[in-house]
Structures are given as structure tokens and as C-alpha cells.
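Predict the holo structure. Ligand: zinc ion.
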Amino acid sequence: MPTSDYQQRAQNTVSESKFSWRSILVHGPRKVTITLNRGVMHLGSQMLDFLAPPRCPITGELVHTAGDLSGAGWAQLHFLSKPRCERCGRPFELAVDEGTICGACIAAPPVFQRARAAVAYDDQSRRLIIGFKHSDRTEHALLFSRWLVRAGEEILQPGVILVPVPLHWRRTFSRRYNQAALLTRAISNLTGLAQETNLLRRHRATPPQAGLAAAARKRNVNGAFSVRDDARARIENARIVLVDDVYTTGATLSACARVLRKAGAKQVDALTVARVVKQGGSAV
Ligand SMILES: [Zn+2]
């Protein structure tokens, strides 16, 4: 689905949220209830803006709408674009032919078909993601989902199913939410693409990946994921887009892609908010 459709959908959502006496008269009682509820929500959101005006999560400057970045905040992030490796999305420093694959992907092709990320994983994006992941800054899901829709333009095609990388249930319980599932829901809301949050399960609580080298990361997640028995029919021949917060070595995404492909998925792509760009870089 082209980006303009997403933008139109977002525009429609904004328009529908406005209180309208005309729609009450035209559409009758059911529409009245919906319109009033949306009107109340709109008023509630205006009240919240009055009490705690929205601020840029990077610079702290006042912004027009919650989830917006200020110009200065925007300038501090390193958004990724072409030229890049067709498979893993690693940016190239020099211009290359379309479809070029990096040395790492030639040496060890990833299990997923393509991975795309919105921003480089550096001090600024790390601060945002840590807040989102560990400090209840769940409102960042809206901001990140806008970036992801743009970064994933090639892979968010009609018919794909969005699937979050799952957390082990104990970690979901202690954190109270799975950040990848929040991102998946936000992308689904923006694009209208289907989401499936119960295809995969993480049956082993793996130690945190932070600080581990590539080989250790691979060992750490090896065998940690499986598909749910009742989900096999939905996976068969499906085109799936895995969603996560950070791409470090691709080990976690590859482990998920492996079990999905084994269960019959036709294609598995991956979409993350940030990506480690420097060789040997580490993530959360
Ligand atoms: Zn590559």
C-alpha cells in the first residue's frame, strides 16, 4: 500500500475525531454515540495538553502534538536511507547499484529476506528506546510507528502480517508490556495491515543480549522461539514482517524467521526502530 494511503487514513482519523452536529443529524443514534465518545476523548486530550503540554522527547521543547519531535530533536537523529544492503539494510558509505548485498550477508545470508530500520542506534536513539522499553514511555510507540511506516515502505505491502518478536512471559509480566507488540499495534493502526501477536512464543527466558558478541548472541537465542501449534494454518504461505525495537546482529530476528519459515511462511522480512551501524556495536 503506498505511503499516501497511510497518510490519507491518518488524516481521516483526525477528521473523524472532531465533534460534528452534522454527522449526528445525518447518521442517526449509533453515529451520535461514536461521535460523542470521540468528542469527549478530544476534549479530554485537549485538557491533558493544557495540564501537561506535549514536549519533544529529545530536547524537551514544546511541540504541537504528543509524539512530535522538535526541529532540533529531529536533527539530532540519524535517519537511515539508501544506499544500503538489500538484505540486512546496513547503510553503505558510497553509492552502489540497486540490490547490492554487503559482505556479511554474502558470507552468511540471514534467514529473513530483508531487514529495514528507521534510525541508526546511537546515543540519542538509544535514550528514546531505553525509555520506551524500560521506563514506561509507551507514548513513543506512536512516534516510532510513523518512522517505521516510512522505513518499511518496501516491505509493508498489502497482505503481509505484522508479528512482534515475543518476550518470555516472565519478562512481559515484570515489564508489564512487550515493546515490540506496542510497535506492531501502532503500525497496524496507521496502515490497516493485519497483526498477529500469538504466532510465536519465546519458551526460554534468554539472558539479556546486551554486551554479547555476535556468536554468543546467536547461541543465546538459538532454540528460544517456536510457533504455536494452533497458529500453523495462519503461517502457511504467509508473508510476515517481524517487528522489534533494535537490530544488533540480526540473531534474534533470524531465530524467529527460522521457525516461521520452517512452519511454512512464504517470506519473512524484519522492521526495527533502530539498527546498530558500526561493526562491533552493541545494543540494549
Ligand atoms: Zn547485509
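The pocket of zinc ion is lined by residues 85, 87-88, 90, 101-102, 104-105 (CB under 6 Å). Residues 6-36, 280-284 have pLDDT under 50 and may be disordered.
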